[in-house]
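User: I'm preparing a small set of examples for a lab meeting where we compare how different chains pack in three dimensions. I only have the primary sequence for this one, and I'd like the structure in token form so I can line it up with the others. Please keep the answer compact; I'll paste it straight into my notes.
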Amino acid sequence: MTLGATYGVSLFGLEGNLIHIEVDISDGLPTYSLLGLPDLALSESRDRIRSALLNSHERWPNKKVTVSLSPAWLPKSGSHFDLPIAVALLAAQGLIPSERLSQTVFFGELALDGRIRQARGVLPALLGLRNSEIKVAVIPYENFNETRLLKNLHIVPVRTIRDLLAWLRRDEIPEEPATIDEEHEEFIKDFSEVLGQESAKFALEVAAVGSHHVLMIGPPGTGKTMLAERFPTIMPPLTEDESIQVSAIHSLSGDLQQRGITTRQPPFVAPHHTTSRAAMIGGGSHVIKPGACSLAHRGILFVDEAPECATGVLDSLRQPLESGAVTISRAIGSATFPAQFLLVLAANPCPCGRFAGRGRACQCTSVQVRRYLHRLSGPLLDRIDIRLQVLPPTRESLSSHVRSESSSDIRTRVMTARARSESRLIPLGIARNSEIPASLLRETLRAERGAMIFLHGELEKENITARGFHKVLRVAWSIADLAAHEVPTLSDVHLAMSLREGLELMS
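Assistant: Understood. Below is the structure token output for the 507-residue chain.
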């Protein structure tokens, strides 16, 4: 037999496409031809595969070798095609049985000594095969734990080519790595460590209930970053499907091990304020990778020193904030990544940072203050429901021996309030309070009569805009869910208005 065939996976964004790999060995001068739109990394596979096979004491054919990757029109990229090509090459020489290859997919890069290296994107690649005829997946040993999230495939982890051949030839089952249990994780960073800032804690609790975007404005050293870093610890844990989706994104980016493979805690991503638009949104030429907003999917995207970001970087988040997804188009095609994140921005009140709070007076002119804060564009601010001032903690709060409330206690309240809002919204096809359409806020989901009269009065006096009217109501619903109110009361609306006091700094 001079023809061998097996399957690999081509990744484009989070989409995995099954690739049929054929290897033909024929008489002629020793050559190696690779067909099917390979990229540079794939074109270099010949030397890696040859060395890996020879160092594993297997034969390399001294003949004409033709490798075809189909469908031919689909661009192929990545060194993870090394393993399936090597298997098809051995099958073409009759060195391994071909019975198992028709329902098996192979994924992995080969080292020159025959080891199979850990690869990126194993989880999203295999997720794309759930509806195919593939029943078995052979992957690198180090990637096994992330595939525990998959229930529809038999996973075979292998360290070397010799381990793989022992399984193919003699049905010797390779050793599986030790299971990593991350279900009972403890919070390393806890809200109990934050002294004072009770109003800011309450604002974040409300934001966690309704998925409201937050802007924190305050002098340096008041705890804005500390609060943001602990924000994920009060968010409800991810569901199994959400955890798989988040893990797939991080697998593609190569940081799944750092995040935790099976953790249910929402991700926290904090790009530096000097980050580029491509790093924030995602991009690449041959391999399109997710950006910070996709890595924060189902979690928190925190941008510190937000006014210092380059022009257009924060505004590039406007579309993902609306649609919950990012589509990146290149000449080779378009890739779509999910991007349903909760945005948290932190900013100083002025360039010197002393415009608010006690102590030394601010040295900035009014023009400098206005210009600094106006770096946050109006369309972006329109998408932020909660804007709060974070003032320096008092001496009493710093010297108090009373332990603050823990993240687990706050999280319990958030989950109870979330359950209350979901029972009301899911029948209407809505997931969170922040997504309630304006029409429903004026009709089906109105606040109590006194609260609506108050808001209409504020609207009449032009203290709030029509957009602000609806935003206050959305926040009021989250406050009402925390307080177990059937509908937002007048006090809930007053609290919602107070959570937007940061608007005064924007004027």
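A couple of notes for your slides: The first strand starts at residue 3 and ends at 12. Residues 133 and 448 are 56 Å apart (CA to CA).

User: Perfect, thanks.
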